[in-house]
Every structure is written in C-alpha cells, then in structure tokens.
Amino acid sequence: MVAxxxxxxxxxxxxxxxxxxxxxxxxxGDSYARVLAVxxxxxxxxxxxxxxALRAEGxxxxxxxxxxxxxxxxxxxxxxxxxxxxAPHLSVQRDCRRP
Length: 99
Prior knowledge:
Blueprint: H1 2-12, H2 32-42, E1 43-49, E2 53-60, E3 65-73, E4 79-86
Antiparallel strand pairs: 1-2, 2-3, 3-4
C-alpha cells in the first residue's frame, strides 16, 4: 500500500522543461524578435547585436533581485543560451532601473 502511494506521488511531478528559461515567456529556440519583444516589456534592453545577442537589466523572479541578463542566439536555431549575473548597481526599490 505504501509503495502504491509513493508511486502515485511521483506520478504527480514532472521534470522541468528543457526549453524553459529563467525569463518568463521566453523559451530556448525562440527567435531573436520574439525574445526582444518579451524581454523589453519588463526589462531595460541595454545592448543588442541584431539576430545574435541582447543584454537587458531587470528583476529576476527566480533570484528575487535585479540581474543583468544575456541572451545568445545561433542562426536558425534561435535562442541557445541565457545567462544571468548579479546587478548590484540596480535596486528592486527603483524597479531595477538605473538612477
């Protein structure tokens, strides 16, 4: 009986999606234009290299603080890498915007 209960519990959980990223609304493989549109809604885009990369600053729900966010693209494969770094020069109280 215990084994059945345990088996039932494991059936309720699902592994994280390999296409998910730490940025809500953005998935691996998304196009540059789509990622730029989604990211620019709630972040300040600070640098772009058309079709290849973009850098933004904004709040990270995962870390609950301000982060610099890097999105790297590879041709037709779309978004391939997302990297977040601490942004101590930004403040949650200022909506993660520069003074």
